Amino acid sequence: xxxxxxxxxxxxxxxxxxxxxxxxxxxxxxxxxxxxxxxxxxxxxxxxxxxxxxxxxxxxxxxxxxxxxxxxxxxxxxxxxxxxxxxxxxxxxxxxxxxxxxxxxxxxxxxxxxxxxxxxxxxxxxxxxxxxxxxxxxxxxxxxxxxxxxxxxxxxxxxxxxxxxxxxxxxxxxxxxxxxxxxxxxxxxxxxxxxxxxxxxxxxxxxxxxxxxxxxxxxxxxxxxxxxxxxxxxxxxxxxxxxxxxxxxxxxxxxxxxxxxxxxxxxxxxxxxxxxxxxxxxxxxxxxxxxxxxxxxxxxxxxxxxxxxxxxxxxxxxxxxxxxxxxxxxxxxxxxxxxxxxxxxxxxxxxxxxxxxxxxxxxxxxxx
Length: 368
What we know:
This protein is α/β, with parallel strands linked by helices. It has two domains: 5-24 and 280-366, Aspartate Aminotransferase, domain 1, CATH 3.90.1150; 46-277, 3-Layer(aba) Sandwich (Aspartate Aminotransferase, domain 2). It has twelve helices and twelve strands.
């Protein structure tokens, strides 16, 4: 365990739902915690008492959130857009990409990602989710002169984790390739350096691994994107309420046409600071240990797809072979999980322990 027993006990106290069972469902929703709730209540109490006098403070919260996102993921402040969710941000982005571009998608990737491309007139190729998917991507990118690769860094159905070093290398070898990534099932689970990633666009909703609640997310852009994408989205907020700046709005602000909620984006800022205080390096190490243990245990029971056996790093999301009876058995034993595809999806985060994985394994053995 990368958190000592005392620190883990203190951390877990922040999450009341953990008293009710084993929460293995962060891939559906990251938990709300007590200190964030207290901040949110104080925020709304200030509005209740002070009304419009809170406006300047609200604008500062939004500005500070942008700064905090940049520091957390190592992205230039001016290249950050605050959006309500990844799906909205992606659709705005795609309206600015030429429809004749050649696109590569992963078959079965998250619907909001694939549908956004499929609903437009793009020239799309697909790669299958197989053990050597990186090789498949490399081959199609180089042989078919692909313009855009769009994919989730962690697959929503089964936690398949794309090799980040591969993406960086692919970009280095194909500098004209635009890489668009969905980080919703990734951001907050492990350390990540956007500037060093080779990724051109990283978007994420923050209600899962970042523990920030609904209604907030972000888009991170490399410097080249603003010269290749022509976004028509606009609004008064994008110009910071300045009538004279309509024609001088920076690229990322075009994704923010209307006013943003200081409650929801302040929650994002609070959670990023919360994770930073815990230590992103410690969270990374802890989650890696959970991933390694869960993979070993589930493989030992023969519950994982064959494509995972030959791969190295995995996320903390697992889809195990399980029928309806097993799903009900887990739920009856107070394990929070979700049915996805033909199996049951279990997902672990910083508030989970190796002992909880042992307990889940025992429950699964009694259901067979």
